[in-house]
Design a protein that fits this description.
Oligomer: single chain
Strand content: under 5%
Largest sheet: 2 strands, antiparallel
Low-confidence stretches: 1-54
Structural class: mainly alpha
Number of strands: 2
Strand order of the largest sheet: 1-2
């Protein structure tokens, strides 16, 4: 009760003032916060509430200002911030003031001291969304993607009303997923923040619903295929005259339903068409694989449209559609370095490495995005040596690598078995490039060692991962390698980690069961099957597809529905027989030598 703003010691104030010499705002705030004499009573015992509040806000302002002082300045922003934190602790402000606690967390987060920010966070009795957002932002800014996502999930799990994710949370986590190329995680984050039920309850509670409220709930429905029936039900109840927003929602929902004809009618009669309406209609055509219809409608996609279309092409594995996009880009003179990277990536992922290389060669301004796309292309097609060589050229041009290109390079080395090159690259991440290795980097290294049969080294490497880098991908790589090399003991250890980290992933249980079965450890097989049964797990059927002469063919495990199944199975039987004959010939030749 005795600690408050007026209790600042002369020593602490002098040190803080010295550090604040490069930050005038922080210095002024310190003078204001520390000017009161020592003889006053603590807050609540005679000090006016307004004066106490002003003192607290001045201290919070000083801490926030300190985080803006460059570390290169005299005293440095980090040193000044820590000094102010010490003053706040002595004054009892961190425990009693949310504003000060948040300022301290933000200061540590901006300086990269995530552990210190977390310590302050853990002392807060009821952290709100702002506290969580500060930690998530700091983790994302520092390159700790898995930590950022883990914090987001903890934020959801706590269940407190004041801790529910906000628009700021999504604005931080989703771009981080895009930066780290975690599409599925990004979709999951977006889905977890999609509180349609709450929105619908709020809508039904409105007594006099206007056009804005109707369009808002229709837009919420149009974001997902799950609400198709509800969308058209609400549309039938709507008594207001439609406007352009209503029509756009109908077009978007028609795309989900595959009703191109209805969407066309709405679109053609839409007044005030612009690039936004065109992009929505292009998306509608692409979802139904009708890019030719989009061109016949006179739609003129922009850079944003084509980038989205290329993503759809990758999903469809359609090199034909990629070529159409490329042709349109040339006709429309769409020149953008990021769009070039997207086109290169699309050609690569659809199997056309020649066109990908040609785009890279003719690119006039090769930047990190372009090099990353081409290195990823080489990595995907098993050309690890070319990827390493291209990376060296990139460094010679003075282009500084980021975590994404380094992950791609390590992955290339892993799949090609270049152990020495991979180890050298991993060591260079911190020693040369001054980047903190991420969870993805550690996972690639475990995979690299495990694939080459260095299972014990891979296991020790996984055990030595720092806390922020521990991830299921690393242990999954080790488990898969144990299956290939028939290593039961290490497989059990890896599986134990995986069962704890992602207990609902049926793939891990299947692999461990197969490891036991290969060594005829039937008790182990039965144990794993009981675990799967207790969790009500069922393995989904495998699925793949291929494009032949502009037509996609979908295949499911044990498929008996494909129209050409007889010819396909005959060809498979013929190939299988050829493989057996070749193996027999090789064995005969080996024995005769």
């Amino acid at each position: 009760m005795r600690a408050h703003c007026s209790r600042f010691s002369r020593t602490s104030y002098a040190a803080a003032s010295t550090h604040a010499s490069s930050g005038k705002t922080a210095q002024r705030a310190l003078h204001s916060a520390a000017a009161a004499p020592d003889r006053r009573a603590p807050p609540g015992l005679g000090v006016p509430a307004a004066q106490h509040l002003g003192c607290t806000l001045e201290l919070a302002a000083a801490i926030r200002s300190a985080s803006a002082v460059p570390d290169g300045a005299r005293g440095g922003g980090s040193a000044l911030g820590r000094c102010l934190h010490g003053i706040a602790v002595k004054a009892g402000r961190v425990a009693s003031s949310a504003a000060v606690a948040k300022a301290v967390m933000d200061m540590y987060g901006r300086s990269g001291a995530l552990a210190d920010a977390r310590l302050v966070f853990d002392e807060i009795a009821r952290p709100d969304a702002v506290c969580w957002n500060i930690l998530i932002t700091a983790s994302s800014r520092g390159g700790h993607f898995d930590d950022a996502v883990g914090l987001f999930r903890s934020m959801l799990a706590c269940g407190a009303v004041q801790s529910m994710p906000t628009a700021v949370t999504v604005a931080v986590v989703v771009p981080a997923c895009a930066k780290w190329r975690r599409l599925q995680t990004g979709r999951s984050v977006h889905g977890q923040c999609d509180r349609f039920d709450d929105a619908f309850r709020a809508f039904t509670a409105i007594l006099n619903k206007d056009l804005i409220s109707w369009n808002a709930i229709l837009s919420a429905c149009a974001n997902s295929e799950q609400h198709i029936e509800g969308f058209f039900g609400l549309l039938g109840e709507m008594c207001h005259q439609w406007d352009s927003v209503t029509v756009l929602n109908v077009i978007r929902m028609s795309a989900f339903c595959g009703i191109n004809m209805d969407a066309n009618i709405f679109f053609r009669n839409l007044a005030g068409r612009n690039i936004v309406t065109d992009n929505i209609m292009i998306s509608c055509y692409m979802k139904n694989n009708c890019i030719e219809d989009a061109e016949s409608e006179g739609l003129k996609p922009d850079i944003v449209s084509i980038t989205g279309v290329l993503e759809a092409c990758i999903h469809l594995c359609s090199v034909q559609l990629v070529r159409q996009c490329h042709t349109y880009m040339l006709r429309a003179s769409l020149e953008d370095i990021h769009l070039e990277g997207a086109l290169l990536d699309a050609y690569s992922k659809c199997g056309n490495i020649t066109n990908a290389y040609n785009i890279f060669q003719v690119s006039p301004k090769k930047d990190l995005v372009t090099f990353t796309a081409m290195i990823g292309c080489y990595a995907m097609h098993g050309m690890a040596e070319e990827a390493v060589e291209l990376f060296s050229k990139m460094l010679k041009l003075g282009i500084r690598p980021d975590h994404v290109v380094l992950t791609t390079l390590l992955s290339a080395c892993s799949h090609a078995g270049l152990v020495d090159a991979g180890i050298k690259i991993f060591k260079s991440i911190r020693d040369i490039h001054r980047i903190e290795p991420t969870a993805e980097h550690y996972a690639c290294m475990v995979d690299l060692l495990a694939r080459r049969g260095h299972l014990q080294d891979a296991y020790m490497f996984a055990l030595d991962m720092p806390p922020h880098a521990v991830n299921a991908n690393a242990w999954g790589s080790l488990l898969g390698a144990c299956k290939v090399h028939g290593e039961i003991e290490l497989g059990q250890l890896a599986a134990d980690h995986l069962f704890t980290m992602e207990g609902e992933n049926i793939g891990n249980y299947v692999i461990m069961s197969n490891i036991y079965a290969a060594d005829e450890k039937w008790d182990g097989v039965e144990h794993v099957r009981k675990l799967m049964k207790s969790k009500d797990m069922k393995k989904p059927a495998g699925c793949s597809w291929i494009e032949v002469e502009k037509t996609r063919h979908l295949f499911i495990a044990s498929d008996v529905k494909h129209q050409d199944r007889s010819c396909i199975y005959d060809m498979l039987g013929s190939l299988y027989q050829q493989i057996k004959d070749t193996q027999t010939q090789n064995m005969t030749m080996t024995q005769s030598m």
